């Protein structure tokens, strides 16, 4: 499907996944209205403005997740909306202010703006496996986790899994609002996203790989890895394919840290990597 003559909005466009999404959308001929917190911050915008097609078809807008109506003018006239904006941090002093409010209120503000615009055919929301797999059930090798799973907010709160709680509350509220207001919505629920960076700053998931490279030992845990380019393309497929419905869990490989280290050692044999 070609994006020629189609206009879409990408919220949080300077982010890791969103930057790749913007690049792929421009490659397909879309005109992209991209929101960022500060259009005058070169760290947030230079890499986007340098993309092929950006000069002709990329338009930057300032928008605030916590400000109702902030997305009204951006969404107006769009055929589709990709809502990727949400804070990704694991250690916080004030979970409500730093994670839950931006995730929940931000998602609702974007959807309220979409509900006002008849031109919007579909909304694709970037959710996470964080809103899928954290419900207290044991994740044994024989347990199949799929799109029917939802993380349990009570379990997340008791366990102080604040990021997981923020994504769960935001997605649950999004589905409720979409159904009540007739919004055609699809969610993308990726695992731990890795791959090349377009933006000049490190994000949380790539920092995790850096920790593995720099550590004396590696933790006894597994990761649900997925390539950022696959995640970005999945967003586009979720928008373009008429048959796309519901939630899509994206995981490329589930690897224990020991397996991940073997791959990293093979790719970068000169590095002194931890062996245990």
Describe the protein:
This protein has one domain (7-195, 226-252): NAD(P)-binding Rossmann-like Domain (Rossmann fold, 3-Layer(aba) Sandwich), CATH 3.40.50.720. α5 runs parallel beside α7. The protein is globular. The protein is of the alpha/beta class and 276 residues long. A seven-stranded parallel β-sheet has the order 3-2-1-4-5-6-9, with helices on both faces. Strands 7-8-10 form a three-stranded mixed β-sheet. It contains ten helices and ten strands. The mean pLDDT is 92. The longest helix has 21 residues, at 95-115. Helices cover 40% and strands 18% of the residues. Residues 8-242 form the NAD-dependent epimerase/dehydratase domain. It holds the Pfam family Epimerase. InterPro entries: Epimerase_deHydtase, NAD(P)-bd_dom_sf, NAD(P)_dehydrat-like. GO terms for molecular function: oxidoreductase activity, acting on the CH-OH group of donors, NAD or NADP as acceptor.
Short précis:
This protein has 276 residues and is an alpha/beta fold. It has ten helices and ten strands. The chain is globular, with a radius of gyration of 19 Å.
Give the SSE map.
Elements: E1 7-11, H1 16-27, E2 31-36, H2 42-49, H3 54-57, E3 58-62, H4 72-75, E4 80-83, H5 95-115, E5 122-126, H6 153-158, H7 162-181, E6 185-190, E7 192-194, H8 204-214, E8 222-227, H9 228-240, E9 246-250, E10 253-256, H10 257-267
Parallel strand pairs: 1-2, 1-4, 2-3, 4-5, 5-6, 6-9, 7-8
Antiparallel strand pairs: 8-10
Helix pairs in contact: 1-9, 5-7
């Amino acid at each position: 499907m070609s994006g020629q003559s189609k206009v879409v909005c990408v919220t949080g466009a300077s982010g890791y996944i969103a930057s790749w999404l913007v690049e792929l959308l421009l490659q397909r001929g879309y005109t992209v209205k991209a929101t960022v917190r500060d259009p005058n911050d070169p760290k947030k915008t230079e890499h986007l403005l340098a993309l092929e097609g950006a000069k002709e078809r990329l338009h930057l807008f300032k928008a605030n997740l916590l400000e109702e109506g902030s997305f009204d003018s951006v969404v107006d006239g769009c055929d589709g909306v990709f809502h990727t904006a949400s804070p990704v941090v694991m250690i916080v002093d004030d979970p409500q202010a730093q994670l839950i409010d931006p995730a929940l209120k931000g998602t609702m503000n974007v959807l309220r703006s979409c509900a006002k615009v008849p031109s919007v055919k579909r909304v694709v929301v970037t959710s996470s496996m964080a809103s899928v797999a954290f419900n207290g059930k044991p994740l044994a090798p024989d347990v199949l986790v799929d799109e029917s799973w939802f993380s349990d907010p009570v379990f997340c709160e008791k366990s102080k899994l604040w990021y997981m709680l923020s994504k769960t509350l935001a997605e649950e509220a999004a589905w409720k609002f979409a159904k009540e207001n007739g919004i055609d919505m699809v969610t993308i629920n990726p695992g731990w996203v890795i791959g090349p960076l377009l933006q000049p700053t490190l994000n949380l998931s790539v920092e995790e790989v850096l920790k593995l490279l720099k550590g004396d030992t590696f933790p006894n845990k597994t990761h649900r890895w997925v390539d950022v380019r696959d995640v970005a393309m999945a967003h586009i497929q979720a928008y373009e394919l008429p048959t796309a419905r519901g939630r899509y869990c994206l995981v490329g490989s589930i690897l224990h840290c020991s397996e991940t280290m073997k791959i990293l050692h093979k790719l970068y044999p000169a590095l002194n990597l931890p062996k245990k």
